[in-house]
Amino acid sequence: MDDLSPDSPADFAAPAPPAALLPLLTVEETQDVLEILAAVANDAPADADLARTVLMNLATRVPSRD
User: Fold this and answer.
1) Residue 50 and residue 33: Cα distance in Å, rounded?
2) Among 61, 56, 59, which Cα is nearest to 21's?
């Protein structure tokens, strides 16, 4: 690990992402997604209003397939 001394050149460029990155979800939005996915995975009823809200939040961030 001596080659990582502060005097060594710091040429650690991050590679370009394989595709365009989408804007991140907030913590609250991510928790909503997890709640809906958990309900579906557990064969429990999902909150339809929450599902619509999550759908709209995701739809504004994901480009159309067309």
Assistant:
1) 9
2) 61
Task: Give the Cα separation of 55 and 53 in Å (integer).
Answer: 5
Residue 49 identity (one-letter amino acid): D
pTM, to two decimals: 0.59
The Cα–Cα gap between 16 and 20 comes to 9
Average pLDDT over residues 36-42: 93
Q: CA-CA distance, 8 to 6, in Å (whole number)?
A: 6
Per-residue confidence band for 7, with pLDDT thresholds at 50, 70 and 90: low
- Distance in angstroms (rounded) separating the CA atoms of residues 57 and 51: 10
Task: Name which of 62, 13, 8, 4 is nearest 33 in CA terms.
Answer: 62
In 3D space, the residue among 26, 22, 9 whose CA is nearest the CA of residue 61 turns out to be 22
